[in-house]
Amino acid sequence: MKPGSRIYIAGHRGLVGSAIRRSCCARGFTRLIVRDREQLDLRVAQAVDAFFTAEHPEYVFLAAATVGGIHVNNSRPADFVRDNLLIATNVIDAAWRHGARKLLFLGSSCIYPKLAPQPLREEYLLTGALEPTNEWYAIAKLAGLKMCQAYRRQYGFDAITLLPSNLYGPGDNFDLETSHVLPALLRKIDAARAAGEERVMLWGTGTPRREFLFVDDLAEACLFLMEHYSDERPINVGSGEDLTIRELAELIAEVVGFTGRFETDPSRPDGTPRKVLDVSRLAGLGWRARVDLRSGIRLTYDWYRNSLGRRLQAQETAGVRSTAATSAVASPDPEALAHRVTRPS
Ligand code: NDP
Predict the structure, then answer these.
(1) d(C-alpha 318, C-alpha 236), whole Å
(2) Is 151 in the active site?
(3) Percentage of residues in the chain with pLDDT exceeding 90?
(4) What is the mean pLDDT of residues 313-328?
(5) pLDDT digits (tens, 9 = 90+) for 259-290
C-alpha cells in the first residue's frame, strides 16, 4: 500500500475497524474510505455495488460483521448466519468485480472445530463439528473464507483471510447482554468494586482457557499482512498465550482494584474448553504481538472509565437500563486514540 492508496475499511466504527483506522492514520494513509451502516448497508448487494462503482477502493479491510458473545449467538441464529453470509458475499464479489488490488477478510478463532487439538493450527479448520453455541456465525465465516480461496483460484483475486483470537481494547462493546467475555468481566468487576460488593459471579465453571489479543496489535497485523501475505491459506493472529477465565477475572480484579472473591455458575454454558492459536506461521513472517495482557487491560480500563464507565454507573445508580447507550460505544475518535493508545513493547 502507498500513502495515497484508496483504502476502504468496512466496519470502521467497530472494535476492529476503528483500530485499523487508527493504525492507517498513524501510518500516514490519507485516502481512507468509510461509510456508516446508515449510509451503506452491506447486506444489500445493489448498494454495495453502487458504492464500489463510485469509490473504486484499491485495498479492502472487511471488518464489518454481526458479532457477539455466547448468549446473543444462541438467541439470534438467523441474524448471525444471514447477515454474515450477505456481507461476505456482497463485499468480496464487488471488490473483485470492481478491480480492487487486495481484500483482507476477518475470520475468527471461533470457526475451528470445538474439539480440535490445541494449540489450533490452520490445517485443523473443517476437520470436526463446530461449537454449537456459535455455529451459525462460524458457518458464515467459513463460507467467507472459502469465497476468498475460490476467488483466488478461479479469478486470481488477491483475497486473504485472518483468524484472530479473542480481541479486546478501546471501543469494545460493554453491553452485558451482547459483549464478549473480557469487556463483560471488566464491567462487572468494576461495578462490584464501585458498589463495595464482596463477590462477583462468573458464568460457567471458570475453567475454560482462552487467549486474548489487544485490538491495536491485531490492526498492526492486518496492515502487515495486507502488505506481506498473499496465500489462499488463512492465517492465525494471536498472542499464542492462554489463561483460564478465573485467572482472567483475577487479573482484571488486580487492574481495577477489586478485592472481593469470585464464585462460578456451572449452570451457564462454558463454550469450547480451550482455545489458543498456534501462531508459528505468523511468527515465521516476522510479526508478533507487542501488548501484554495486563497492559492491554489497563489501557482498555482507562478508556472505559474515561469515556463510558461514568455514564454507565450513573445510569445504573438511577436504575436506567439502556441497551442503546451501552452498546453504541464502538466509535472512538481514531486520531485522538492513535495518540492515547500507547503501546508498551
Ligand atoms: P463490532 O461489532 O465492534 O463492529 C462491527 C462493525 O460492522 C460495526 O462497525 C458495524 O457497523 C458494522 N456492520 C455490521 N453490520 C453491518 C451492515 N449490515 N452494514 C454495514 N456495516 C455493518 O465487531 P468487531 O470489530 O469486534 O469484529 C469485526 C470483525 O472481526 C468481524 O468479522 C469479527 O468476526 C472479527 N473478529 C472479532 C473478534 C472479537 O473478539 N471482537 C475476534 C475474532 C474475529 P455499526 O458501527 O453501524 O454498528
Answers:
(1) 44
(2) no
(3) 78
(4) 46
(5) 999 999 999 888 778 889 999 999 999 999 99
C-alpha 44/C-alpha 55 separation (Å) is 17
What sign results for the dihedral spanned by CA atoms 233, 239, 243, 245? negative
The CA distances from residue 192 to 28, 53, 260, 320, in Å, are 42, 51, 8, 17
Q: Which cell numbers in the block locate residue 147?
A: 469465497
Res 180: pLDDT? 83
Average per-residue pLDDT for the chain: 89
Prediction pTM value: 0.89
pLDDT of residue 189: 97
pLDDT on residue 69: 66
CA dist 152 and 161 (Å) reads 11
| Distance (Å) from CA 309 to ligand 1 centroid | 22
> How far, in Å, CA of 332 to CA of 14, rounded?
9
The three cell numbers of residue 4 are: 495515497
How many other C-beta atoms can be found within 10 angstroms of the C-beta atom of residue 89?
A: 18
The active-site residue, picked from 137, 151, 229, 301, is 137
Give the CA count within 13 Å in the CB-facing half-sphere of 248: 28
CB 288: neighbour CB atoms within 10 A?
12
Question: What's the 194 CA to ligand 1 centre distance in angstroms?
Answer: 30
The residue-averaged pLDDT of 318-322 equals 47
Per-residue model confidence (pLDDT) at position 313 = 61
Q: Which residues line ligand 1 (CB under 6 A)?
A: 11, 13-17, 36-37, 41-43, 63-67, 83, 87, 106, 108, 164, 166-167, 173, 180, 330
- The answer to whether residues 10 and 92 touch, using CB atoms and an 8 Å cutoff, is no
* Ligand 1 geometric centre to CA of 260 (Å): 34
Full set of structural domains in the chain with CATH: 7-340 (3.40.50.720)
Q: How many CB atoms lie within 10 A of CB 150?
A: 14
Alpha carbon distance 167, 16 (integer Å): 8
Q: For the CA atoms of 52, 137, 171, 253, what is the dihedral angle to 10 degrees?
A: -170
Backbone angles phi, psi at 144, to 5 degrees: -65, -45
Beta bridge partners of 10: 62
